[in-house]
Amino acid sequence: MSSVLPSIFSTGLAEAWLSVGVALLAALGLTPVVKRIARWNGQVDWPSDDRWHDRPVALMGGVAIVGAVALGMAVAGTGAFPWPVWIGASALFALGLTDDLWGVRPEAKVLTQVLATAAVLYAGHEFWRGGPVWASIPLTFLWVIGITNALNLIDGIDGLAASVTAIAAGALALLSVALGNLALAAVMLALAGAAIGFLVYNIPPASVFMGDCGSLVLGYLLSVGALGVQGGGGPVVGTLVPIAVMAVPIFDTTFVTVTRVLRGRSVTDGGTDHVHHRLIKLGASEGQALALLSGMSAAFGGVALSALWMQRLLALAVAALLLVLVTVVGVYLATMGGGRLAGVSSSESGMTARFGALMRTYAGGASWKSVAGLLADLLVVGAAFVVAAYLRYGGAPPPDWSAVMLEILPAVIGAKLLVFYTFGLYEGIWRHAGTPEVVRLAGASGTASVIVWVGLVTVKGPAALAPSILILDWLVTTIGIGGARFAFRALRQYAAAHRDGGRRVLIYGSDPDGILLLRHLRQHPELGRTVVGLLDENSVRHGYRMQGVEVLGAPDDLPDICSDHDVEEVIVPLKAVSKEERSRIREQCAAAGVDCQYFDPTIRPAPETSTSPLTDNGRGEEKILSP
């Protein structure tokens, strides 16, 4: 990679740098003009149920983007893409503009995209170049039409489509430089410059949207640019590189398609059920969701760039680990609390039940989750063994050992999965896993590594597997299988800790009773409370954080704390304080002008054996928040 970086600043890239500069300045200048004209003509996107924004925003920003790209190409030349590609881009621009202004029937959209993809094939670009025609042509249609629409679909929150375009185009430009295709780098840098210039006006809160006339053209040109770098790194790596560059749009489109099919909803309808929408519903701000997905796009772009220097086996191992990662995130987002999560429709629980019924029918009956876990472990175990070998040798293993590794890999996978099954790793409910499960998982992974090493030494001899590979393999495998299992719990707890909404409350006490109350409120968002801090008599704890929540002060500081943090309520764990303390706390809450409630986790007799709902009749007149 180091040999590529100096060439980025060589004179051969002068036209590319000129194109990005012209496109950037053109977008900065054209966007305000287009925005003003759009508002004057009434071309405004109004808020609606299937839209995320809550204010009218000017449309037609894509006109400025396309104009900026055209000016950038005017100074750099269009040699990277033959004229049919530009004809296809022009057709999609006309389609998007017509749809933004008057609306277009779905079949007209599909027909135009098919013709634009045919132009790509006519120009000599195809997916899986060198592969059989019966496969490469359908894959090209799937790729170009899919990416074109995928970028259009992620244009659901301010700045996302423009950010992903800038990052993906920048990654494709670097890949083009690495492969010596400077003409393609110029086109991709022009796209990046136009997207960055437009992003200035499109970051939250956006003052202009790009519309279909912008997103369709950007997605189309990115898909063709990805085909231009597909030849680098061999057929396998070359196929994975464009997928990695466009990972965010592909992930979002796949996610929406699968979840809507499971809910019985049309895939082509608009809606607020995309990945970025769900991140916001989990508690992230619009800016945080934008930063997270942009960071994810940049990370996958870096993986794509580094893949050019990877051997096929290592590239496949990394791809397997990333596939498990995005699958875990996708499954979590698809089942992120159903009706209990504010802003998510009640149909989510129906979707989850339908998905479970489908998997029970076709993937393991009632134990379909265990089957899914076993398949994930299969990928992780195989990838971990390959990654451990490459880490041990600081690159490609010696040729003779590579042959042995490929020969023994199936046996390693089979043996480890058998050990995992014996240790009961496919019997747990991992979203409630704790320390015992961590110990069991680490023990299962260690036992599996030892059994593999003993078996290989017995069959192949002492030189078959270096002890360092054994240790690295155990470490990577444990992190992989543990991460896949504990990711659900980690994501759920992180989302609960950052969820906002409802009454802002303080919890009295930072002892175990207070932490129990904090967890209870986080696990039950239907109670409508957000914990903003803890109170504690012990001044030593002031300023420290418990479960991510700060101990703000003592009860005597309540008036100032309530004023500074807009507190509406104080909740006291009933078992943690005496009756005299409860009386004092009630007086302090009254003086601060906030409500006071009690939390009672008492085990109570069943109604058949007791007529009292409480175990202490002396508390009957107090307000109690019970589990």
Please give the structural blueprint:
Elements: H1 14-40, E1 44-45, E2 57-58, H2 61-76, H3 83-101, H4 106-122, H5 133-153, H6 160-178, H7 182-202, H8 211-228, H9 234-245, H10 247-263, H11 275-281, H12 286-307, H13 312-334, H14 347-362, H15 368-393, H16 399-422, H17 435-460, H18 467-497, E3 503-508, H19 512-523, E4 529-535, E5 545-546, E6 549-553, H20 558-565, E7 569-573, H21 579-592, E8 595-599, E9 624-625
Parallel strand pairs: 3-4, 3-7, 4-6, 7-8, 8-9
Antiparallel strand pairs: 1-2, 5-6
Strands across the major sheet, in which order? Answer: 5-6-4-3-7-8-9
What spatial form do the alpha-carbon principal axes imply?
A: globular
How many DSSP helices? 21
**What portion of the residues fall into strands of 2 or more residues?**
5-15%
- The mean pLDDT is 85
Note the gap between the termini: 57 Å
Decide which structural class fits the backbone.
mainly alpha
Report the strand count: 9
> How many whole angstroms does the radius of gyration measure?
29 Å
Tell me about the largest β-sheet.
7 strands, mixed
Uncertain runs with pLDDT below 50, 5 residues or more? 1-8, 337-346, 610-621
> What is the N-to-C succession of helices and strands?
HEEHHHHHHHHHHHHHHHHHEHEEEHEHEE
Report on this model:
With 627 residues, the protein is mainly alpha-helical. Helix content is 63%, strand content 6%. The chain contains 21 helices and 9 strands. The protein has helices at residues 14-40, 61-76, 83-101, 106-122, 133-153, 160-178, 182-202, 211-228, 234-245, 247-263, 275-281, 286-307, 312-334, 347-362, 368-393, 399-422, 435-460, 467-497, 512-523, 558-565, 579-592; strands at 44-45, 57-58, 503-508, 529-535, 545-546, 549-553, 569-573, 595-599, 624-625. It has a 7-stranded mixed β-sheet with strand order 5-6-4-3-7-8-9, with helices on both faces. A two-stranded antiparallel sheet has the order 1-2. The radius of gyration is 29 Å and the shape is globular. It starts with 13 loop residues before the first helix and ends with a strand. Mean pLDDT is 85; it is low at 1-8, 337-346 and 610-621.
